[in-house]
Structure formats: C-alpha cells, structure tokens
Design brief:
The complex is a heterodimer of chains A (about 240) and B (about 90).
Chain A: E1 9-12, E2 17-19, H1 20-41, H2 51-71, H3 79-94, H4 108-137, H5 147-182, H6 187-217, H7 225-235
Antiparallel strand pairs in A: 1-2
Chain B: H1 3-43, H2 48-78, H3 81-89
Helix pairs in contact in B: 1-2
The chains are: A mainly alpha (about 240), B mainly alpha (about 90).
Membrane topology (chain B): Multi-pass membrane protein
Subcellular location (chain B): Cell membrane; Membrane
Family (chain B): Belongs to the ATPase C chain family.
C-alpha cells in the first residue's frame, strides 16, 4: 500500500524523477493561479456580480476578518502569506475527494516545507514590526532564564505544525485504503465525508496557528498601543 | 525464533499498544475541553465565535499528541527501519 505520494513516480529521467507530490502541487498552483486570473479579469463593482467574484469576495473578506480577530491588528500585511497558506492547503486537502489522487499535504515533504515557510515568516514579520533588537528581546521574556525554552519551543512548534497536518491527511488516506479492502461498498464514503471535514478544519488550523505565531512575535509593544490600533481598524 | 519473526512481532505489538495508549490521553483532554467550551457558550452566547475559534485551535493542539502516536504506529508497520535493514542484509 502506498501511504505517501512521494513513492508514486510519474516520470523517471534517470538523474531526476518526477513524483506525484511535485506534479500535483504544481497542478494545484496552476489551477489556483489560473482560476484567480480568470475571475479577477472581469471584476466589477456593479450591484450585479458574477458568482465566482462573489466566491472570491466571501473568501477574502472572511480571511481578513479572521486575521483581524486573531492578531488584533490590521489584516492587510498578513493576508498574502496566511491567505495563500490557507487556500493552498484547503485546495490540496479537498483533492482527497478526486479518485486516484493522493493530496500532496499527505506527504511529509510538503508539510515540512509549509512549516518552514512559517518558521521563516515569524522572524521576518517580527523584525519588520519591532526591529531586530525588539524581536530578539522577546526571547528574553519573562526572564533571560527562559531563553533556551523559548528557542526549543520555536523549533518544536514547527515540527508539530508539519506533523499535525501530515498525520491528519495521511490518516485519512490510509483509513480509506484499509476500509476499501475490508468493506468497499458504503462505508468508505462516510470516511471520505469525515476526511472532508478534517481537511477544511486542518487548513483553518494551520493558517490560524501561523497567524498566532506571527502575531505573538510582532506584538511586543502592544499594551496601550492596541487601543489606538483598533480605532484605526474601525476607521479605515 | 529467528530475528525476522521477532522484529515483526514486536513491531505489530508495539504499534497496537502505541495507538491504544496514545488515544486515551487526548480523548480525555478533548472531552474536558469541549465540555468547558459548551458551558462557556451556554453562559455567554455572545462570545460563541471567539470561544469556538479558540476551541478549534486548542483541540488541534491536544489532538496532535494522538497524531504523533498514529504516525509512530504507521512507521512501525509500513516503514520500519529495522525491517528494511534486515531485508537489505538478507539481499532482498
């Protein structure tokens, strides 16, 4: 039984092999980019909008609301990164429904790559917001004794982020495969439905956790400033 | 008993034990978290959105311990490193 799309080789050139993970990932990226381009090409601000534009507006405004609620800051600067993570993971988890396709998030390589993106994004956003000294100082909070524990937590939560997504999606694939050999008639459909819920929730959780980590690294000087920021939010 | 049978036996046994024990803790923890969240929503229905979002994130954190156990069990069954080493040594 293949439990990882890394093991499925589509094209072997001897020195370089194309496995299903890479191929499906590029397929999803092409699909998302093409879809976004096709929809935004005929975008309009009239009262009648097409259903696809409606879909995108719901998606983007929902993401903005969630980011603003979690980070208590303006969502604009975080939306590209967190929104991309959410939409990519959601699209790839939902591909689980297409017969014969194993979602690329069911491979540890993909999820580790996504978690490394978050690992890099946390200091990038933190330094952009607080400056190098301000960002580094928060490793010393509440006392300098906590320094090694803060560093360990930074690393372990990256591992946890990767293994959580991988484990959830891989377990869905494996359980579907096992059930297909035991009770192939109705039961796998129910597990597929459960996998649909798991896929959406895991995409949401990955994006929200990434946002929580980024927000916790870039909100050292919150305190009295947060009130003025939330006023800006309601005004702008 | 040769080492092949021993490795197979211990791997399967350990995989079962891993997922069995590893499911107990998260199940109890998630039950407590959901019960608390439900009573909190019953007391403050206005805060349902915030409570639900925090609940989902918390449940994902709790559940990840069970997922680690599942991943270890899957490694023991499908990708056991000792098994691969043994079959390589046997020329398989």
């Amino acid at each position: 039984m293949t439990i990882s799309p890394d093991q499925i080789i589509l094209l072997d050139l001897g020195f370089w092999a194309l496995n299903a993970t890479v191929a499906v990932t590029w397929g999803i990226m092409a699909m998302l980019t093409l879809g976004a381009w096709l929809i935004t090409r005929r975008i309009s601000d009239a009262t009648e909008i097409s259903r696809w534009q409606n879909l995108l507006e719901v998606l983007v405004s929902g993401l903005r609301d969630q980011i603003a609620a979690v980070s208590r800051q303006r969502p604009g600067r975080y939306l590209p990164f967190v929104g991309t993570l959410f939409i990519f993971i959601l699209a790839s988890n939902l591909l689980h429904l297409v017969p014969g396709l194993i979602p690329p998030t069911g491979s540890l390589s993909t999820t580790v790559a996504l978690a490394l993106c978050v690992f890099v994004a946390v200091p990038v956003f933190g330094i952009a917001q607080e400056g190098v000294a301000g960002y580094l100082r928060q490793y010393m909070r509440p006392t300098p004794i906590m320094l090694p524990f803060n560093i360990i937590s930074e690393l372990s939560r990256t591992v946890a982020l990767a293994v959580r997504l991988y484990g959830n999606i891989m377990s869905g694939t494996v359980i579907a495969g096992i059930l297909l050999s035991l009770a192939p008639f109705i039961f796998p459909v129910l597990m597929q439905l459960l996998g649909l819920i798991t896929g959406v929730i895991q995409a949401y959780i990955f994006a929200i956790l990434a946002m929580v980590y980024i927000a916790s690294a870039s909100s050292v000087r919150r305190g009295h400033e947060s009130t003025s920021r939330s006023e800006e939010n309601t005004n702008g | 008993m040769d080492s092949t049978a021993l490795i197979a036996m211990v791997s399967i046994f350990t995989a079962g034990i891993t997922i069995a024990i590893g499911a107990i803790g998260p199940a109890l923890g998630e039950g407590r978290a959901v019960a608390q969240a439900l009573s909190a929503i019953a007391q403050q229905p206005d805060e349902a959105g915030t409570i639900t979002r925090t609940l989902f994130v918390g449940l994902a954190m709790i559940e990840s311990t069970a997922i680690y156990c599942f991943v270890v069990a899957m490694i023991l069954i499908f990708a056991n490193p000792f098994w691969n080493q043994l079959s390589a040594a046997a020329g398989g």
